[in-house]
Known about the structure:
Elements lengths: L1 E5 L4 H10 L4 E6 L10 E4 L5 H11 L3 E4 L12 H21 L4 E7 L22 H16 L5 E7 L1 E3 L7 H6 L6 E4 L4 E3 L1 E3 H14 L4 E6 L5 E2 H7 L9 E4 L5 E3 L4 H7 L12
Parallel strand pairs: 1-2, 1-4, 2-3, 4-5, 5-6, 6-11, 7-10, 8-13, 9-14
Antiparallel strand pairs: 9-12
Helix pairs in contact: 1-6, 2-3, 3-4
Amino acid sequence: MKILITGATGKIGYNLLKYLKPYHSIATLSRSPIYKTRDIKQYIADITDKERILAVIKEFQPSVIVHLAGLVGKECYSSSDLTNKVNIEATENLYSMAVKNNVEQFIFASTSAVYTQKDYSPTKETENIHPKNKYGLSKYNAEKRLEALYSTKTNINILRLFNVYGPDFHDSLIYKLTHPTDVKLRILDPKMYFRDYIHINDVLLAIRRCIEVNPHGYNVFNIATGEAYSTEELINELEIDLNSLKMELIPLQSLDITWADISKARTALGFVPDSKIIIND
């Protein structure tokens, strides 16, 4: 199967192309080249360059587009216009081109930041929709644009990724806890802060399952483990000596929860993640 991956120089994209390479014909689309990978067709382009993107799709003729490119986190605060252009408009344009060029499936990487959870329970895809920040809002708006554009010619499968960790994910709390430095680590109230952490290997598995199953229609799936750890529980699970860490604890007035119900992904995709925290990275 021919698969085009956008944002292939990112942490998820680079891991994905290596993971899928033995099984599928892969092409990548990114603003800069990937030097460590051989036998991969690479297209250099900005995701907002409509003419160039259209030319890429016509030349490669993918069956599946995995759309990972976008502005993330703090980048979204620098310019609302740029965030809208990259995260929303470019996604909309890319899907429209996919439909016109008979792409069978469009997979869009969204985020758990579309949710704001107040109860200590896992959320379904239809619950707790209230984006936490500009990044989450841009991703949710992109989801709604895709829903409005949906064509039976090209299935849309949206994967809301929760808290990804693993090799190269140096911003994750798990990495910071297991790789202490002289820099003081700012930690939200360990007893009040809960997250559903998913290893990159399980994210790759979910994407592969989505590619191969290709659920019909417009679908949204939570991609996580279905288990949430408080920071206190995480520290205990990782068997970390708190005396070895330089920490600044930040109090919270209420629970801060990001916890997924993954029953839909289990049923539709056959997605079964490893819920154990992996610490040997």
